[in-house]
Amino acid sequence: MFKTSILSCATAALAAFAGPLFASENGERITITGEAIDTWCYYSGVMGGPDAVVGAAHHTCALWCSAGGIPVGLLADDGTVYMVLKIEDDDHSNGGDTQMTIASHVITADGMLYKRDGINYLVVSKIIADLGITNLNHEDYGPVPSFAIPAPKP
Amino acid sequence: MKNLFLIGLCIATASASSMLAQDFSAGSTAKSWNLYPEKKAFFKAKVVDPLCTLTGSCPDNCSSGKRQLALLRLSDNVMVLPLKNSQAAFTGAANELQPFCGKDVEVDGLLIEDPELFARNLYQLQKIRIIGDTKWTKANRWTKDWRAANPDAKGKGAWFRRDPRVKAAIAKDGYTGLGLETDEAFIKEWFE
After folding, report:
1. B52 contacts on A by Cβ (under 8 Å)
2. I need a labelling partner for B35 at 20 to 30 A (CA). Which of A7, A138, A145, B181 fits?
3. CATH match of B21-144 with 2.40.50
4. In this structure, is residue A65 part of a structural domain?
5. What pLDDT digit, counting tens, does each position of B12-60 carry?
């Protein structure tokens, strides 16, 4: 009985760890709609809550972070973030022009999703629609961070 | 019956231990950024190109700086994605990792994990060194790289005020990205 228990335990442990150890790198095809966000400000909370670091309020900072090489994510309505590794033929995910042009925009993208260790990685094969900036939260939050827009000179 | 109980207990224990975040704070000398989801984390890893790892598209030298890079932790094979370097000003970590492409390294920094935002295995890189080396490299080269890539963007102020692409985007669509007319009206109202 002891041997059986040990064997069962080993099997259970193997099953539990099989995911991370032998994670399939096979992607799944998805179509996703979400806002192109700056993932550092969103996840770190460095500039406030998640509602403040998206949309028009945070657009200038999203440009800075995209140009600065912070990974761009697509934030879907259900709160899932998809890290964008490539957009169509452009794999310049470290501060590339294509990612900058969609900063804060809501886009619908067709692509391949790869899940690995709790992170969703997205390889966009085609941007189907670009709805522009739809979250007008600047009216509530003002610029985030506050210095994003220089005060007009008197 | 007893066997079934033991098996259930084993499954529960194994599943729980695989899902719980491990503690990598031992040996870390990372500085706190006073972030709600931060945890100090010092670990060994291989520097990898995640697009290569996931899709098999593998240019030489991790794409020589074009792509985001990740840390494949040696102890558990978890792929950690660094979002940030150690500089304060809106700068990522890929430039810091690029010189270490394909190498086994030690890193020190902050893991960012927040169950409410589904954040797992994200990282702020503060320093890095090849395993076996004694000297650390601080993860602060980004602005130096930017200055070298933008020799004409001279003047006072932070890089993000002088960056030609950022300036062009703001000149085209404004600070809010909503167009110059909307932008101007908002700025006038906000600052009055």
Report:
1. none
2. A138
3. yes
4. yes
5. 444 444 445 679 999 999 999 999 999 999 999 999 999 999 999 999 9
B57 contacts on A by Cβ (under 8 Å): 91
Q: Strand B119-130 and strand B137-138: pairing? A: antiparallel
Interface contact flag, A17 B68, Cβ < 8 Å: no
Choose the closest CB to A12 out of B7, B69, B163. B7
| Residue B180, SS3 per DSSP | helix
> CATH 2.40.50 spans which residues of chain B?
21-144
CA distance A21 to chain B (A): 6
Kindly provide the ipTM of the predicted complex, given to two decimals. Answer: 0.90
Work out how many domains chain A is built from and give that number: 1
DSSP A152: P
- What's at B168, amino acid-wise? A
Report if residue A94 sits inside a domain. Answer: yes
- What pairs with residue B112 in β-bridges? B38, B122
B164 and chain A in contact, CB less than 8 A:
no
Determine the distance in angstroms separating the CA of B40 from the nearest CA of chain A, rounded to an integer.
14
Contact B76, A22 (CB under 8 A): no
